[in-house]
Design goal:
- By secondary structure, the chain is an alpha+beta fold.
- It has a domain at 247-295 and 322-518: Anthranilate synthase (4-Layer Sandwich).
- The chain has 11 helices and 24 strands.
- It has helices at residues 39-55, 77-83, 144-151, 217-228, 256-270, 296-306, 354-366, 368-386, 422-430, 441-451, 502-517; strands spanning 8-9, 28-32, 62-71, 87-88, 90-94, 108-112, 118-138, 163-167, 185-197, 200-210, 247-253, 279-290, 311-316, 322-327, 330-335, 338-349, 389-394, 399-402, 406-417, 438-439, 462-466, 470-475, 479-483, 487-496.
- The strands form 2 sheets. It has a 22-stranded mixed β-sheet that branches. It has a two-stranded parallel ribbon with strand order 1-4.
- Helix 2 runs antiparallel to helix 6.
- Mean pLDDT is 88; it is low at 1-12, 98-121 and 522-537.
């Protein structure tokens, strides 16, 4: 039976990008209420707090206030979000859980009353949000003005007031219909947020208002009440297993013939003596049509199991599809002035036995073609960091990072920013990295825009969050766009350098998308005929 969705759209009317970033917000505050045993009790506590706030409104024309209730039980944020059905906008972000490679996210959070005095600390595992207290969106490329507009609502004293979102891979490219709801970038401070901590959880509400943006306290509190009426407090355990959704068809853009032509064209350009192009990353978009609608949150929960040492994310603006992913690649993590990034390039499958896995690892480490692809990425990121950091450390310089299905060459880079405003500089200079675009960046970007036949949208763009004293962004690869009645667009790319082979690169695309497609049941009746589509049996 086909699953039906009745999407309830919860839309904030305040776009923070329309304000003056030079004018400070009147108040930025977090209040922590007493702990409760369950989400339902947390809802009761917050509804009482909202009634109190209505009786005692703040005497300010602008501000942002977060009320948070600790829950004495660890409940998964992804399961809370799934319980909210299709309330929009919504977001989800979880850091890498595995510490096996020594490169997991350091998300130790100080949780207090917003005045610098902390009451306790916990590791934040993941955060899910519904509705937006304030959102940030424009059609023009993400700018310093936009970054300052976001930072205007954030404070180091309130570390869990964060803006979650994503930025397009190429903001100069035309936006295709499937990506229109996202604009050039889309960030949101959740109106209702569920934080999964190590050993506990937290439910929070955030109210933001600014009379100068025609969004008053009364309007903000009324909007919050409307959202709270739609929040479910009963959270059901997800099975996190393959959905059994029959795949009716799967079509690639480009198809194999056009892919071969594109790769040969890239190699011809790379091997031309007058060309500056050293590497270009070409991508593929695969449209998967299933018998029933794909539940993006349930799919993402399965991806959590598939990729333990990866970031999981979901971003779905009002009236738009869900952008979901399971990416192993960090763009950067900043805490105060400390910043870290990493180089991830070259791909091999995991071996079926430990001996075969080691053999594949050795082949990856000794391959001249893969060494070139990886070195281009590592040195480019190092140069970008050195332009804004006093000292950059690269350690390890080259090793193998093993994921569940694949393995990559890997290096970690860290340094200290000279000033906090360099965060915008490092974001705009690191993105896009040679791992998802190529080198030189502009030459590769132009080649992609002239060659690829689809809009990457937020695929391969920065996805993550800004906070007051801390920010973290991953690279939006291993991702998909899930849309009601339209199946999913699954994206993957591969780096083309001297020595690349079109068929081998095509096989690498299949390897990278396998973590998504294998969570669906790859079966259709053999008599099915769909013209111009690749049928999967």
């Amino acid at each position: 039976m086909e699953q039906k969705y009745e999407t309830r759209r919860v839309v904030a009317l305040m776009n923070g990008c329309e304000g003056d970033p030079k004018l400070p917000i009147g108040s930025i505050e977090t209040r922590t209420l007493t702990a409760v045993p369950s989400p339902s009790k947390a809802m009761e506590r917050l509804n009482v707090a909202i009634r109190d706030l209505k009786c005692n409104p703040p005497p300010l024309t602008s501000g942002i206030l977060r009320l948070q209730v600790p829950i004495e039980e660890q409940i998964e944020a992804i399961e809370w979000l799934h319980a909210q059905h299709d309330n929009l906008p919504r977001c989800f972000f979880s850091g890498r859980r595995s510490r096996a490679n020594g490169n997991g996210s350091n998300l130790l959070m100080d949780i207090g009353n917003g005045n610098g005095d902390t009451s306790f600390t916990h590791n934040l595992v993941g955060a899910a949000g519904v509705g937006s207290a304030v959102f940030f969106q424009q059609l023009h490329p993400f700018s310093y003005h936009d970054w300052r507009s976001i930072k205007r609502f954030l404070s180091a004293k309130c570390p869990l007031i964060r803006a979650y979102g994503a930025i397009r891979f190429d903001a100069t490219a035309n936006i295709s219909p499937e990506w229109k709801a996202f604009g050039s970038f889309y960030f949101m401070v959740p109106k209702v947020e569920f934080d999964e901590l190590e050993g506990s959880s937290m439910l929070a509400i955030t109210i933001a208002w600014d009379n100068a943006l025609s969004w008053t306290w009364d309007e903000a509190i009324h909007s919050l009440e409307t959202t709270m009426q739609q929040i479910a407090s009963v959270v059901v355990k997800l099975k996190k297993e393959a959905s059994g959704e029959p795949i009716l068809s799967k079509t690639h853009v480009p198809n194999k013939t056009h892919w071969d032509l594109a790769v040969k064209k890239a190699l011809q350009e790379i091997n031309t003596s007058s060309s500056q192009l050293v590497k270009v990353v070409l991508a593929r978009s695969s449209r998967i049509l299933t018998a029933t609608n794909i539940d993006p949150i349930a799919w993402l929960a399965c991806l959590q199991v598939e990729g333990e040492d990866a970031y999981q994310f979901c971003l779905q603006p009002p009236n738009g599809p869900a952008f979901v992913g399971n990416t192993p690649e960090r763009l950067f993590h900043r805490k105060w002035l400390s910043i870290s990034s990493e180089a991830l390039a070259a791909t091999r499958a995991r071996g079926e036995s430990s001996d075969l896995d080691l053999q594949i690892e050795h082949d990856l480490l000794s391959s001249p073609k893969d060494h070139l692809e990886f070195t281009v990425v590592r040195e480019n990121i190092q140069n970008k960091l050195e332009s804004v950091c006093d000292r950059v450390v690269v350690e390890p310089k080259k090793t193998v990072r093993k994921l569940r299905r694949i393995q990559h060459l890997y290096a970690q880079l860290s340094g200290n920013l000279r000033r906090e405003d360099d965060e915008f500089e490092i974001l705009s200079s690191l993105h896009p990295t040679p791992a998802v675009c190529g080198l030189p960046k502009e030459a590769a970007r132009l080649f992609i825009s002239e060659t690829e036949m689809f809009d990457r949208g937020m695929y391969a763009g920065p996805v993550g969050w800004f906070g007051g004293g801390e920010s973290e962004f991953a690279v939006g690869i291993r991702s998909a766009l899930v849309e009601k009645d339209s199946g999913a667009l699954v994206y993957a790319g591969t780096g083309i350098v001297e020595g690349s082979n079109p068929s081998s690169e095509w096989d690498e695309l299949a390897l990278k998308t396998s973590q998504c497609t294998k969570l669906l049941q790859l079966e259709v009746p053999k008599q099915s005929k769909v013209e111009n589509l690749e049928i999967i049996y």
